[in-house]
């Protein structure tokens, strides 16, 4: 029991015990080098895109047409008439090949997109062109 006034050493020992030492500064506030702001969204993909087994990646057992269309749009390459969408083999009960070989598995997970206050990233992301000196000032 620590009591009402734990010593800095006791607090440090608790941080160490629970694996928080790197996440918090010595005064107990979050270490800004270890935290950041993110936009979190749902992402889908197929087994052919390097999925690694993780408790955070979920198998979609019966994907909807909207989910499959979203994956096709997201994995498409090219633009206009040169645009090519991948062929995603989904399960069809009347397709004998699916009975033998199965179909592609669909997975979903959270995607974390970091939010940055870097003005240069905003300028280049907006496809604007600026000179080197101005870019260094924004960086």
Walk me through this protein's architecture:
The protein is an alpha+beta fold and 139 residues long. It has two domains: 35 residues, no CATH class; 76 residues, no CATH class. It is built from five helices and three strands, in the order H-E-E-H-H-E-H-H. A three-stranded antiparallel beta sheet has the order 1-3-2. It is flat, with a radius of gyration of 24 Å.
Task: Give the key terms.
2 domains, single chain, 3-stranded antiparallel beta sheet, 139 residues, alpha+beta, 5 helices
Strand content bin = 15-25%
Helix content: 25-40%
| The number of domains | 2
Number of helices: 5
Report the principal-axis shape: flat
Order of helices and strands: HEEHHEHH
Structural class: alpha+beta
Number of strands: 3
Overall average pLDDT: 78
User: Termini distance?
Assistant: 48 Å
Instruction: Report Rg.
Output: 24 Å
Low-confidence stretches: none
Strand order of the largest sheet: 1-3-2
Major pleated sheet:
3 strands, antiparallel
